[in-house]
Write a structure and sequence with these properties.
CATH class of the largest domain: Alpha Beta
Distance between the termini: 23 Å
Strand order of the largest sheet: 3-2-1-6-5-4
Number of helices: 20
Largest sheet: 6 strands, antiparallel
Number of domains: 4
CATH architecture of the largest domain: 2-Layer Sandwich
CATH topology of the largest domain: Beta-Lactamase
Shape: globular
Strand content: 25-35%
C-alpha cells in the first residue's frame, strides 16, 4: 500500500532539504547544465533559457543562455515558483495578460518578460528542485513537440543533479578516507590496491623513506624499490619541485597538511600529473612525514579537454557571423553572403540563382510553399530550417525573414538573417535520446512507453510480457546495491538476447521489466514465453512473468495493466517455483 502524500508544508520542508543536500546552490557554471540551457534555446527558438533552482527565498540560475542577467530573483517574483507547483510544463503566452504576472517587476521592468515556458525538474522521489525554462520578450506559443522536448530536458537536468549528488557523496567519502590514513605500510598497501593510491612515509630522524607498491608503480619502478629522498624529489618536474619542497618545509615547521597537484616525470620518461598530499605526525615518539600519491593524469586531461571544448563552443556561439541571404517570392536565391555560403560548404556563386527547394531535404520541400505564403501574408516569418550542404549533410538554420521590395525591379523579396544551430540541434536530439534510456541497463525507460504509444497508436498489436525479479530486495539487503545493479544489468542482457527487429525491452523501474513484441499474435507470444522458461536456469535471478496481447483500439497502458495483473496472479498461484507464468 502506498504511503499518504505529505502535507504541503512537510513537502516543502522535504524539498528544501533535498535541494540543500545536493550542494549545488551558488556554485560555478558547469558545461552539462550550460549545454541544457543552450539546447532549450535552440529547441524553443527563444533568446533566453535558464536552468533554475528554487530555494526558500530565491530563484537561482544554475545555467543561462542568452543576453539576460537573471542570476538571482526573489522567490515571490519568480515564474519558476509557479512551475514547481505542478507536474507539467507551465506556459505563459503573454505575461501582461496573465493576472498572476501582470504586476511582476520582471514583466513591468527589465528584462520585460512577455513569454515564459518552464518544465519542472522532478527528482526520482517526486520533489521538484527548479525548472528548465525559456523566455521571450514577445508573446508566443510553443508547439506540443517543443513543450515535450522542454520536459525531456528537465528530466535530463534531474538526472544530472542526481548523478552530481552521487559524485559529491563519493568525493566526501574519499576525503574522509584520506583523513584517516595512517603511516602503516600494510594499510598503505591495502588503500593502494583498493583505490589506486600509493602511500609513503619519511622518518625525519633517519631520513629513511618507504614507498608502497602502488607508489612504485606510479613512478614506473619495480615493487619494493625504496629511493633516497633526493631521488624521490627528483621525479617531480622542475616547476613542481619548489612547490613540494615548500609544502614539506611548512608541514615540518607548522604541522600543516598539504594537498597539491604537480607534474612529474617517471623513471620511463613519461610525463604525468599526480595528486600529492601529506602531513607531519608523531609515531612512537618519532616525527614522520606520511602521505599519499595518486596518478591524476587522465582526470586532468579529461578536465582540460572539456574546458577547451567549452571555450571553443562559447567562442563560436558568442562570435558567430550572421548568415544573410535574399530570395524572391518564388524561392530563388538572389544573393548569399560568404558566411552563409561557408555554412553550407558552397562557393557564393554556386548558390546565387539557385532554387531554394533544391537545398532542402525531400520531406521538407512541401513546407516551402507554406513558408512563402506566410511571409507574403504576414510580412515576416521565423523558424528553423534544414538545408543540404555540399558534403551531403544537413545544416540547421534558425532564421528570421522579413518581406522587402527590390528598389530596382519593385518586386517583393525576402531578407533572411539566420544562425547556424546545427550543433545545438544535434545536442538536443542526443539529450532527448538519453531521456528515453535507463542509464544503468541501457534499456528503454518508462518515459519511452508514452513516446512509442504516441508513435504507434492503439492498433500497434504489441505482445506484452511483464517481468518481475524474485528475491531482488534480498539481494540488495544482503549484498548491497552494487551487487543489485550487477544483477539488473545481467538480467537486461538475459532478457534482450532473444529480441528481434522492432522488439523493445523496457526497464519500468526497480526490478520490473517489460518486453514489447512487435506485431505479435498469441502463438508468437507463447513461443517467446516458452523460450524464457526454457532458459530460466541460466537467468541471473529467478523471475515471474505475465502476458497480454494489445487488442485493436486498446491503449498500450491498458494492455500493460492486464499483463501486470497476470504476473501477480501467476505469482500468487505458483509461489516457490524458479520461473512462473500466467496469461491474462
Amino acid at each position: 500500500m502506498s504511503q499518504p502524500r505529505p502535507a504541503p508544508d512537510d513537502r516543502e520542508t522535504q524539498r528544501l532539504a533535498r535541494l540543500h543536500g545536493l550542494d549545488v546552490l551558488d556554485t560555478a557554471a558547469e558545461p552539462f547544465f550550460d549545454a541544457l540551457a543552450a539546447a532549450a534555446c535552440a529547441i524553443a527558438g527563444t533568446p533566453v533559457a535558464l536552468v533554475t533552482l528554487v530555494d526558500a527565498r530565491h530563484q537561482w540560475a544554475k545555467a543561462r543562455a542568452g543576453d539576460v542577467e537573471l542570476t538571482q530573483v526573489p522567490r515571490e517574483h519568480a515564474f519558476c515558483t509557479h512551475t514547481i507547483e505542478g507536474d507539467s510544463v507551465l506556459e505563459v503566452p503573454d505575461a501582461t495578460a496573465d493576472a498572476r504576472f501582470q504586476a511582476n517587476p520582471l514583466v513591468t521592468g527589465g528584462p520585460a518578460i512577455r513569454y515564459y515556458a518552464g518544465a519542472p525538474i522532478v527528482m526520482p522521489d517526486g520533489l521538484r528542485m527548479g525548472a528548465v525554462c525559456v523566455i521571450d520578450r514577445q508573446p508566443r506559443r510553443l508547439r506540443p513537440d517543443q513543450l515535450a522536448a522542454l520536459a525531456c530536458l528537465a528530466d535530463v537536468a534531474a538526472e544530472g543533479l542526481e548523478q552530481r549528488g552521487r559524485v559529491l557523496e563519493r568525493a566526501r567519502a574519499a576525503d574522509e578516507l584520506e583523513q584517516r590514513v595512517r603511516a602503516s605500510e600494510a594499510f598503505l598497501e591495502r588503500t593502494g590496491r583498493i583505490a589506486g593510491v600509493g602511500g609513503w612515509q619519511l622518518d625525519l630522524e633517519s631520513n629513511a623513506l618507504l614507498w608502497s607498491h602502488q607508489t612504485c608503480r606510479i613512478h614506473d619502478l619495480p615493487d619494493g624499490h625504496q629511493p633516497s629522498l633526493e631521488e624521490a624529489i627528483g621525479y617531480y618536474a622542475p616547476d613542481g619541485r619548489e612547490a613540494i619542497a615548500q609544502a614539506v618545509a611548512t608541514a615540518i615547521a607548522e604541522e600543516r597538511a598539504w594537498d597539491l597537484e604537480l607534474p612529474m616525470v617517471t623513471a620511463h620518461g613519461r610525463s604525468i600529473w599526480v595528486r600529492a598530499n601529506g602531513t607531519c605526525e608523531q609515531q612512537d615518539g618519532r616525527r614522520i612525514l606520511i602521505g599519499a600519491l595518486q596518478d591524476v593524469t587522465e582526470r586532468r586531461q579529461a578536465t582540460q579537454a572539456l574546458a577547451a571544448s567549452e571555450r571553443k563552443y562559447r567562442k563560436l556561439f558568442d562570435n558567430s557571423l550572421g548568415l544573410i541571404c535574399i530570395h524572391d517570392m518564388q524561392g530563388t536565391l538572389l544573393s548569399v553572403n560568404p558566411a552563409a555560403a561557408r555554412s553550407l560548404g558552397y562557393p557564393v556563386r554556386a548558390l546565387e540563382q539557385r532554387a531554394l527547394h533544391t537545398l532542402m531535404p525531400v520531406p521538407q520541400q512541401a513546407a516551402l510553399s507554406a513558408y512563402l505564403a506566410r511571409l507574403s501574408a504576414e510580412g515576416s516569418a521565423s523558424g528553423v530550417i534544414g538545408l543540404l550542404a555540399d558534403d551531403g549533410g544537413v545544416r540547421y538554420w534558425k532564421y528570421h525573414s522579413a518581406l522587402d521590395t527590390d528598389l530596382d525591379t519593385g518586386q517583393p523579396q525576402a531578407l533572411v538573417h539566420a544562425q547556424d544551430i546545427t550543433i545545438e540541434h544535434e545536442q538536443g536530439k542526443q539529450l532527448l535520446e538519453w531521456s528515453f534510456t535507463d542509464p544503468l541497463t541501457g534499456c528503454r525507460n518508462r518515459r519511452y512507453l508514452a513516446q512509442i504509444d504516441r508513435d504507434r497508436g492503439p492498433d500497434a498489436g504489441w505482445g506484452c510480457i511483464a517481468f518481475d525479479l524474485d528475491g531482488f530486495k534480498q539481494v540488495n539487503d544482503t549484498w548491497g546495491h552494487q551487487r543489485g545493479d550487477e544483477v539488473l544489468t545481467a538480467t537486461a542482457r538475459f532478457l534482450s538476447a532473444p529480441l528481434h527487429g522492432e522488439d523493445v525491452l523496457v526497464r519500468l523501474g526497480g526490478d520490473e521489466f517489460l518486453l514489447l513484441l512487435a506485431q505479435a499474435d498469441a502463438a508468437l507470444l507463447e513461443r517467446a514465453v516458452q523460450e524464457y522458461l526454457d532458459r530460466a536456469a541460466i537467468a541471473p535471478i529467478a523471475f515471474s512473468l505475465g502476458t497480454a496481447l494489445q487488442a485493436p483500439g486498446e491503449a498500450l497502458g491498458e494492455a500493460l495493466v492486464r499483463a501486470d495483473h497476470a504476473l501477480y496472479a501467476w505469482r500468487r498461484a505458483r509461489r516457490g517455483q524458479t520461473a512462473r507464468r500466467h496469461d491474462d
